[in-house]
């Protein structure tokens, strides 16, 4: 399947892209926009498999620009919040041919692009234009030339490149083919049973695999509507809900938890706009919060499991009437999923090992990184680096990230297990458990805790609460009380490297 086929799903007059306070863009206009954008890029000498860096704020133009670039070039969305040094690394590493920015942008990426000789292209959204409609204008002159390979990309072409977020190692380039992108969109579409009547409220950042694939590509592949916000804002979420009238939304757990805190005052909005389901991905969701969300929205929360190398989704809890298992990330939802032992053998149900995957949505390998490919693939399977098990029904449970597992003098502690116990404490609103360095044990257990509004608790009280539920070695020896959980740029909890970030040496 190509992007041309994927974009053909929506009826001409059906709304493809909407946004707060803007006229919507229908599918006929979206297809015209993609054709026009590819013609503009081809005229600049940019075509299939050429890298196009995109540095745009969240919103409808980011969504449509991504779709257009992925359709006939190699899209490379970058976090607009990066600093100059980061842009220099990514633009150089990607070997980007052009950089697309908003016309009035003052992003540090612009000076970096000039320094590196990367051509700058302005995205111009005219006043009064429909949500997501734009034109491209080269910022500096230059002789127009024809792209070597113009038009729509083929399935084997690279449609997108993203970097994995490493904490200790250099970020790795993950090339995702058009076939990978289309397969993943189809998997998510099938899992969530998207139809043309669905409306998704997108609050996820669109420089990250979760928002790009689950938030935009999968619903577009079903001919449904995507309502693009400027990014997550708990204060505006319910107003957007009233405007968009969504049937679903997807988010990371920290966003869901912020929504829970504001839901009581917005019961009327929720009643007016019944959701078919909610979805959570990118990090594990405490079962307590799942129960709370399902009660508030009177809709199932579908927890799923994804990663960049799998073009997002690998496993997902199914929609009713099939059972959802809190604490599990569900059934294989696209690729084959298995559990592998240390010697490369596949393990039986109930046994704990490394989660491995293979299938049409899995990257063929990291770019220019033979060592990472040698470590990342074994016997045709991609090694996720996550530890888990499958039960007799095939439901997958994560016991932790292999690197996140805390090794306390040989005793292994799953931080997720400690998280779930801490979340049961009546004063705890949010928490993240992680390993901190220890001179004798190697690592010791630590946790950041955010208390509920008006609640009071001491480190000792919380430690005693945990000690009643687990062995002493699993009790956090250090608890930091903070106003919010430290998160990465995508809103994801990052256990690895958190101790150093918080100065716990």
Write structural notes for this entry.
The chain is of the alpha/beta class. The chain has 15 helices and 26 strands. It folds into three domains: 3-191, Rossmann fold, CATH 3.40.50; 232-401, ANL, N-terminal domain (Rossmann fold); 408-501, ANL, C-terminal domain (GMP Synthetase, Chain A, domain 3, 2-Layer Sandwich), CATH 3.30.300.30. Helix 2 (27-43) packs across helix 3 (60-72), helix 6 (178-192) crosses helix 7 and helix 9 (253-263) crosses helix 11 (287-297). The model has no long low-confidence stretch (mean pLDDT 93).
Query: What is the name of the CATH superfamily of the largest domain?
Result: ANL, N-terminal domain
* The CATH class of the largest domain: Alpha Beta
Content-based structural category: alpha/beta
Biggest sheet, strands in spatial order? 2-1-11-10-12-13-14-15-16
Low-confidence stretches: none
**Largest sheet composition:** 9 strands, mixed
Mean pLDDT across the residues is 93
Bin the helical content: 25-40%
**Can you count the helices?**
15
CATH topology of the largest domain: Rossmann fold
């Amino acid at each position: 399947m190509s992007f041309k086929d994927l974009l053909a799903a929506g009826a001409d007059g059906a709304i493809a892209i909407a946004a707060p306070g803007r006229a919507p863009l229908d599918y006929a206009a979206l297809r015209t926009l993609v054709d026009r954008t590819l013609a503009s890029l081809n005229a600049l000498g940019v075509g299939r498999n050429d890298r196009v860096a995109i540095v745009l704020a969240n919103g409808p133009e980011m969504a449509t620009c991504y779709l257009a670039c992925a359709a006939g070039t190699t899209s490379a969305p970058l976090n607009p919040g990066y600093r100059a040094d980061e842009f220099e690394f990514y633009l150089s590493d990607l070997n980007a041919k052009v950089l697309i920015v908003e016309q009035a942008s003052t992003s540090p990426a612009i000076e970096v692009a000039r320094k590196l000789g990367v051509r700058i292209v302005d995205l111009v959204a005219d006043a009064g234009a429909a949500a997501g409609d734009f034109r491209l204008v080269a910022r500096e002159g230059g002789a127009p030339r024809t792209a070597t390979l113009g038009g729509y990309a083929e399935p084997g072409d690279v449609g997108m490149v993203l970097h994995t977020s490493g904490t200790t190692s250099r970020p790795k380039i993950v090339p995702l083919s058009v076939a990978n992108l289309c397969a993943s969109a189809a998997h998510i579409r099938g899992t969530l049973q998207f139809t043309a009547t669905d409306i998704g409220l997108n609050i996820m950042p669109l420089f990250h695999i979760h928002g790009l694939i689950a938030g935009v590509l999968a619903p577009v592949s079903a001919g449904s509507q995507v309502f693009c916000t400027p990014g997550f804002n708990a204060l505006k979420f319910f107003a957007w809900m009233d405007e968009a009238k969504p049937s679903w939304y997807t988010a990371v757990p920290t966003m869901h938890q912020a929504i829970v805190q504001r839901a009581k005052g917005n019961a009327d909005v929720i009643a007016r706009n019944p959701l078919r389901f909610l979805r959570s991905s990118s990090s594990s969701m405490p079962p307590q919060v799942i129960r709370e969300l399902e009660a508030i929205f009177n809709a199932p929360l579908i927890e799923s499991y994804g990663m960049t190398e799998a073009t997002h989704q690998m496993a997902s809890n199914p929609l009713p009437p099939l059972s959802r298992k809190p604490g599990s990330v569900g059934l294989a939802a696209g690729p084959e999923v298995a559990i592998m032992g240390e010697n490369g053998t596949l393990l039986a149900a109930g046994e704990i090992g490394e989660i491995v995957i293979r299938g049409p949505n899995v990257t063929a390998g990291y770019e220019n990184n033979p060592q990472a490919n040698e470590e990342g693939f074994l016997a045709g399977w991609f090694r996720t680096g996550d530890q888990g098990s499958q039960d007799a029904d095939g439901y997958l449970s994560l016991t932790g990230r292999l690197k996140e597992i805390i090794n306390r003098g040989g005793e292994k502690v799953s931080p997720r297990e400690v998280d779930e116990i801490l979340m049961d404490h009546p004063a705890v609103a949010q928490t993240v458990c992680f390993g901190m360095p220890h001179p004798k044990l190697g690592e010791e257990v630590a946790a950041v805790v955010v208390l509920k509004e008006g609640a009071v608790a001491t480190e000792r009280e919380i430690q005693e609460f945990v000690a009643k539920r687990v062995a002493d070695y699993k009790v956090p020896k250090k608890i930091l009380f903070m106003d919010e959980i430290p998160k990465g740029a995508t809103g994801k909890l990052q256990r690895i490297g958190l101790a150093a970030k918080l100065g716990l040496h």
